[in-house]
Amino acid sequence: MSNNLEETGSKKAGEENPSWRCTVCGFVFFGKKPPKGCPRCHSPSREFRTVLTHRSLVYDGKPADVLLINGSTHRAGNTGFLVDCAEELLRETGVLYQRYNLAEYSIDPCWCCYSIRDESCTYPCRNKEDDMPAFHQMIAASKAVIIASPINWNTMAVRLKIFLDRMTCMENLYHLGKPGLTEGKIAGILICGHEDGAIKTALDIFFVLQQMGFILAPFGIGFRTHGSEYNSSTDADFFRTDNLIAQQIQGVVHNVIEMMRLDPESALRGKLIPVGE
Predict the structure, then answer these.
(1) Is residue 164 a contact partner of residue 206, using CB atoms and an 8 Å limit?
(2) Phi/psi zone of residue 266: left (φ > 0), alpha (ψ -120 to 50 degrees), beta?
(3) 85 or 118, which is more confident?
(4) What is the pLDDT of residue 12?
(5) What are the residue ranges of CATH 3.40.50.360 in the chain?
(6) Which ranges of 76-197 would DSSP assign to H, the alpha helix?
């Protein structure tokens, strides 16, 4: 995220006002509370977080069977609501999980080392300066991932695309003839959007995962769109009251858990033949 941030508000003498950063566009506001909305990108106040000195994400080694990933730029938007619902279900089942909103973390674009030569794309990743190395470790340690994304131009959100791009170093282990870290893990996918592109978005996400040996849970894709005939400002109310998307989220989470309990990762370890471009 750019360091050249616009700022507003003021600090009175003798008064320390906290600062708030819009996780969508980086706008910074000084005040006791975040603004009612971002003046730069028009995101609502719930997209603001208090500004703290950034510390790189570090994997603490604690087990998490399921990684729940919100890939949306709007961490508290409609995709965030889907993730909220999935998180509640995971909590109720007692499954060990960790939730991450990608908008809150620093993930650089892939350096494309593979385009120089195969051996240049290494695991651990050569870029150790952002938060992605910790995500690599958590993915390797987990049993399943549930990834949620909005539909942006008939495909996934850009932050999620960068996140998946950065998994190239794990996928490249197979090309280098080294033991993989991801085959047999389970995947579930949740998609929402204003209009067309849900299935394509879900398959774009899964295509990356299947190249790493992930298994899509049966009935492992849940999606819902509202419709271009409606103003996008009405989407939030629609998704929060729609019974179909609630049923789909419940089904995807349930199916991921049931598939995970079969432990295909252990059963298939060392028995698969990697196939890819």
Answers:
(1) no
(2) alpha
(3) 85
(4) 43
(5) 66-268
(6) 78-93, 132-141, 158-165, 168-175
Residues of the chain with CATH 2.20.28.10: 15-53
Task: Output the CA–CA distances (angstroms, integers) from residue 146 to 20, 100, 179, 216, 236, in the order listed.
Answer: 29, 11, 24, 10, 21
DSSP state of 102: G
Q: What is the CATH number of domain 15-53?
A: 2.20.28.10
State how far the alpha carbon of 239 is from the alpha carbons of 78, 234, 249, in Å: 7, 9, 12
On the question of pLDDT at 26 being above 90, the answer is no
pTM of the predicted protein model? 0.86
In whole angstroms, what is the distance from residue 186 CA to residue 222 CA?
Answer: 15
pLDDT category of residue 54 using cuts at 50, 70 and 90: low
Confidence (pLDDT) at 8: 52
Query: What is the Cα–Cα distance from 188 to 128, expressed in whole angstroms?
Result: 28
120/1: higher pLDDT: 120
Name the phi and psi angles at 178, rounded to 5.
Answer: -105, 160
What is the signed CA dihedral for 165, 167, 173, 179, rounded to 10 degrees?
-160
Please state, in angstroms and rounded to a whole number, the distance separating the CA atoms of residues 86 and 84: 6
Residue 152 to residues 25, 159, 192, 196, 228: CA-CA distances in angstroms? 16, 11, 10, 10, 13
> Is residue 237 helix, strand or coil?
helix
What number does CATH give the domain 66-268?
A: 3.40.50.360
What's the pLDDT tens digit per position in 192-202? Answer: 999 999 999 99
Across 15-32, average pLDDT: 82
For residue 182, which of 259, 100, 268, 113 has the smallest C-alpha distance?
Answer: 268
